[in-house]
Amino acid sequence: MNNAVANTARLLGAGLRALLVLTLVTGVIYPLLVTGIAQGLFHDKANGSEITADGKVVGSSLIGQSYNLPLKKGEKTPEADLKWFQGRPQNGLGTNSVNTRYKLILSGATNRSGDNKDLVAWVKAAKAAVVKDNSVAGHPVEPSRVPADAVTSSGSGLDPDISPRYADLQVHRVAARNHLPVTVVRNLVDEHTDGRTLGFIGEPRVNVLELNIALKDLVTKS
What we know:
Radius of gyration: 26 Å
Shape: elongated
Distance between the termini: 91 Å
Order of helices and strands: HHEEHEHHEEH
Number of strands: 5
Number of helices: 6
Helix content: 40-55%
Structural class: mainly alpha
Strand order of the largest sheet: 3-5-4
Oligomer: single chain
């Protein structure tokens, strides 16, 4: 009887020591080691690729933002604030989804076929809006100039980037709304255009948040 109790106590003690050691290694030492490596070698990515302006975090370079006017009484969808560069369309998962624009409850695409009547209607409406919003006096926008990313949402609905073509399409409107020379705004776009990753992956792109932060600084100084 005494031997049975002693063996049980010994096994329980060994199990408790193993639990404490494994908890220390896997629950404390390993997380601290991985966190230290991430902060030391990949600080920006480990912290969410934060973008700062005026000394505070204003967003992430990986997630798009809206640039809209305050919602008016009776409105369900706010109008775009056209003094800013605009990102991709809002219907990431469709107009009846919780993900109406960059709301991180869900992410995903419309999953509609190219001939789906709803998708066709969205694209046509988006194209007409892009032409109307970006046509300024002496510089009308031809429908043929509207790129695909101006009228379609991304696969996740959270894309922070637009193509240089779409950014360039908005230059005259942004310049007029902010009373800036067109050449200055176009140079700003060129300065914030990133090439293909490693020179061959993906497409050239413009981060809308970073571009609008630079635009705000330019307007403040002018």
